[in-house]
Amino acid sequence: MSGNSSEDAAPALSPEEAEASVEALLYASPAPLSLQELKKALPDAPEMVKPSLERLQQVYGQSGRGVQLVEVAGGWQITTKPAYHECVGRLVEAPKPTRLSLQALETLAVIAYRQPVTVPEIMELRGVRSASVVRTLLERKLIRIVGRKNVVGRPLLYGTTKEFLLRFGLKDVKDLPQLKDMSEVFGDDVAQQLEGMESLEGAP
């Protein structure tokens, strides 16, 4: 034993090295990395992960670079800034379109705002059969089964997924816009449908 407590407590990485390590991990990962995943990847300096993220977010935000560090779907990810999407689109082949129908968007919005929710409850709100649309959303991994409701028949409960958060650029479902502002996420047609549902629910 050295007996020198200051040397024993010295961090294995300098702040600059920790920041660079976090940046490299985020750059190399195709998906957002959670705080826990980053700390696991930096076992010598887990306490330096959060300050490194905050510093990198500040640097990217103020430097005028074409990329940014964002918190999305429960993790952190380096993405291109929206101002450069058109430029990047000329170089990178666009993914196959996965547009959702109006019915699917409407059902997805009901699940997002009312979760956890059952198919009968979705049908009651929409006024039409919704089972097939729910299956489509399950296949696209935008929703998942989160349990069963403790009522007669114990119907399945549905909620949104991490893929949903990624698709709509949300950090958490708590970040969903207010119903009156949801056209930004789901489009005007769906927003009008849901606003109508809200009125029906509030009716005496």
Task: Decide which structural class fits the backbone.
Answer: mainly alpha
Low-confidence runs: 1-7
- Distance between the terminal alpha carbons, to the nearest Å? 76 Å
Radius of gyration: 22 Å
Largest sheet, in brief, is: 2 strands, antiparallel
Instruction: Give average pLDDT, whole number.
Output: 84
Q: Shape, please?
A: globular
Alpha plus pi helix count: 11
Strand residue percentage: 5-15%
Q: Give the total of beta strands.
A: 4
Order of helices and strands: HHHHEEHHHHEEHHH
For the biggest β-sheet, the strand order reads: 1-2
Helical percent range?
40-55%
Note the topology.
Blueprint lengths: L4 H4 L6 H14 L6 H7 L7 H14 L4 E6 L2 E6 L4 H5 L12 H13 L4 H8 L4 H9 L3 E6 L7 E5 L1 H7 L14 H4 L1 H15 L2
Antiparallel strand pairs: 1-2, 3-4
Helix pairs in contact: 2-4, 6-8, 6-11
Description:
It is a single chain. The chain is mostly helical and 204 residues long. It has eleven helices and four strands; from the N terminus they run ααααββααααββααα.
List keywords for this structure.
204 residues, mainly alpha, two-stranded antiparallel ribbon
Summary, kept brief:
Mean pLDDT is 84; it is low at 1-7.
